[in-house]
Amino acid sequence: MARQTWDAIVVGSGISGGWAAKELTERGLRVLLLEAGRPIDPERDYLEHEPVYEFRFRGLGDRRRDRERQMIQSIAGPFEEQTAHFFVDDIDNPYTFDADKPFYWIRGRHLGGRSLMWGRQTYRMSDLDFEANAREGVGVDWPIRYADIAPWYDYVEDYIGVSGEALGLPQLPDGKFLPPMALNCAEEVVKQGMARHFGGERVLTIGRCAILTQAHRGRAACHYCGPCWRGCITHSYFNSLGVTLPAAQATGRLTVRTNSIVAAVTYDERRDRATGVRVIDAITRHETEYQAGLIFLCASALESTRILLNSRTTRFPNGLANSSGELGRNLMDHTMGGGARATIPGNEDRIVHGNRPNGIYVPRFRNVKTSHPDFVRGYGFQGGAGRDGWGRGASSAGIGAEFKHGLREPGPWRFTFYGFGECLPYATNTVTLDAVKTDAWGIPALHVSATYGDNERAQLQDMAVTAAEMLEAAGVRDIETFVEENAIGLAIHEMGTARMGRDPRTSVLNAYNQTHDVPNVFVTDGACMTSSGCQNPSIMYMALTARAAEYAVDKLQRREL
Ligand SMILES: Cc1cc2nc3c(=O)[nH]c(=O)nc-3n(C[C@H](O)[C@H](O)[C@H](O)COP(=O)(O)OP(=O)(O)OC[C@H]3O[C@@H](n4cnc5c(N)ncnc54)[C@H](O)[C@@H]3O)c2cc1C
Ligand code: SF4
């Protein structure tokens, strides 16, 4: 086994790992970034401008191969022929789940992680979220409040560029925004109807998203080509490959090793400190040990927990830093899929130009000022409006030239509200190491046992009711409600399993994402979440990572780690 030494090791190069690498190198540390997946070459791998006829299966994908190798990943919305290479191979990267509790784990294993395919929706949590657990006696209390994280939200937003509209709502704090994208005319109709009917209680705004509406820090403004999940050659949306990793590289203190799978954190029982990580080369399968005084786990919520569970020592027989027994518990994922759709009459002489890579947002309004009798917490709506295209021909009756010519004209305006809700932290929603199954490199796979509870189901039902109310208020027609039955995991906001908390007996991490048990190990991805809020979470991971990095470097300099 070869051995090499660094100031800090960052595991994972996605949304959190990119920020850890940037902050630690900019603060003077020599950092080794270990990424399990392959390198990405934007010239070759970003396909947002490739027309569909350039693809062997015309964008429909190799369905036999997808069924055999990516049967879980291919369920995800942005999975397609143009993006299959951004999603893991499910055979090489298996996990198991209880037969009656399906869990869909959507992952990327490559440089940049899921920051390449994410939806870029970016919303702050508020004290309504941070105080909820303590107020309701659910889980444990967050060890931080909004005031602790607000400057770090500012710092991150200012760096990555987030476009959006300030609303002055306490439940969805405003940020440092670039100019918002525009609503289209049908969205304006719904917005105005809601304003007339609900006053300021239910508000429709353009999505807040990590996409540049003007040039920012050397990156070009978005040119509205549309399919961001295939990559962005102009770096107009935030991903770690185009933004944080180049910043870290620019310090001259970053070393990146791809195809390097971290199997475990190594630990010195005598010094009570982590000493480094054990790595398996994804291609040669050779094992290496890298050493460092500081470890940042940013491998994504469940992968970081898997690494800790697999790092068993005499002191920690159930996983490193797991004296609380909470490692692997309290898995959450947002609910999604309650809502309504409708036709918006009028504006038939208007059409959109370009493909705006963003939708609308309705901030949470349930359990903000008054309590709902059926559930706690709340949800927000995403969605938006567009005109039906020629594809409507597949579902309409017609034949012949006249029918075909008719399809050249855009159809009516359609609008959809699609809800995303908060999931409570249930101790019974767990991940553990599977007793039998291993991945292609012999590392124990995860077993997931998780499901939504009554609170989540009640929220989904309510989403359909309130979405229809808002559409009715706008005076539209053909309102159709829906409540989808999406399995947990499919919102792709999996989080928890190494929660932050005040008490080492009931939580894994302290207020700075440092493990209570092993001071030089930090976990700054979604594993740390104490509750889920209903907001898309990744900006929270970025802010917490930057904050934890400052704290860790300060502690290192004082020789307190
Ligand atoms: C289609 C889609 C849409 C989404 N939309 C949004 C959205 O609009 N807003 C939002 O906030 N979030 C969204 N998300 C979720 C968001 O992508 C994740 O929350 C975010 O990427 C998590 O960041 P991370 O750094 O923890 O993990 P990732 O970005 O997944 O990165 C983890 C990295 O760690 C690497 N890794 C894993 N295990 C190991 C190991 N053992 N050793 C070394 N490296 C390892 C992986 O290969 C990967 O590169 C979306 C996700 C998807 C897929
Ligand atoms: S729509 Fe904008 S952000 Fe998305 S890929 Fe195109 S240029 Fe990039």
Query: What is the end-to-end distance?
Result: 26 Å
Sheet having the most strands = 7 strands, mixed
Q: H/E order of the elements?
A: EHEHHEHHHEEHEHEEEEHEEEHEEEHEEH
Query: Which ligands occur here?
Result: flavin-adenine dinucleotide, iron/sulfur cluster
* Beta fraction: 15-25%
Give me the number of helical elements: 12
How would you sum up the global shape? Answer: globular
Helix content: 10-25%
**Could you give the count of β-strands?**
18
By helix and strand content, what is the structural category? alpha/beta
Calculate Rg over CA atoms: 23 Å
User: Oligomeric form of this entry?
Assistant: single chain
Runs with pLDDT <50, length 5+? none
Average pLDDT = 97
Description:
The chain has 561 residues and is of the alpha/beta class. The protein contains 12 helices and 18 strands. It has helices at 15-26, 42-45, 63-69, 127-130, 132-136, 146-160, 185-198, 244-250, 301-309, 400-406, 454-473, 538-557; strands at 3-11, 31-34, 96-97, 162-163, 177-178, 205-206, 254-257, 260-268, 273-281, 287-297, 335-344, 360-362, 379-387, 413-421, 430-438, 444-449, 477-483, 521-523. Strand 8 (260-268) and strand 9 form a beta hairpin. Helix 6 (146-160) crosses helix 12. The chain binds flavin-adenine dinucleotide (FAD) and iron/sulfur cluster.
Concise account of the structure shown:
The chain has helices at 15-26, 42-45, 63-69, 127-130, 132-136, 146-160, 185-198, 244-250, 301-309, 400-406, 454-473, 538-557, and strands at residues 3-11, 31-34, 96-97, 162-163, 177-178, 205-206, 254-257, 260-268, 273-281, 287-297, 335-344, 360-362, 379-387, 413-421, 430-438, 444-449, 477-483, 521-523. By secondary structure, it is of the alpha/beta class. Helix 1 runs parallel beside helix 8 (244-250) and helix 1 packs parallel to helix 12 (538-557).
